[in-house]
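Q: Got one fold?
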Amino acid sequence: MKLDVLVFASHPDDAELSCGGTICKLTDQGKRVGVIDLTRGELGTRGSAELRDLEAAEASRRMGLSVRENLGFRDGFFVQDEAHTLAIIRAVRRYQPELVLANAPQDRHADHGRASKLVRDAVFYSGLRKISTADATGGPQAAWRPRQTFFYIQDYHLNPSFVVDITPYFERKLDAVRAFSSQFYDPASQEPQTPISTDDFWHFLDGRSRVMGRMIGVTYGEGFISEQPLKVGDVMSIL
């Protein structure tokens, strides 16, 4: 199954929180979008890995994903080594996306920055034909390098290279985030409070999206970082 866009996320709900509106916009445009979660989020204070598996499946349905996988890396303890890099290379070669979206380069959660570099490097190595990988049947995979890799913005405020207008999709983004009900505000929950389980966190999501939107003159936006300048063929096309 070839995808147009492949989103990597260190934890289930990273993609929804950071680029859920963009994903919904892409799937409504008929693009084939997949999400690969690196871990099951088993170290999360609330809920469980099993529950988050179910929540991720529901969030995927709400966003219209073509596929969602979990690589089962150890939450909090995955590293940038050959085994982890090859797992991501196999995924990139399996789905052959034109665009990869990945975690923020720096963020409050240590896993986010580590995942960002791991995915960035694996995407590059995926284009080297002398790195051999096999598919699920044992057959050789062809080298593949996406045309672009962009990084979504998470907890820390980072200056975006560009912002996507998600105004018509903001409520649908929130609906996808709400699928992870174990993680977010629930006044009836008896589980410990976390930085994302308070009612104030919903205001943060709204405020962050409004700040990004204001940068481009719309109500809601999602920002992305590009390591390289973006090519513009016609300057009038960006007006």
Summary: The chain has a mean pLDDT of 97.
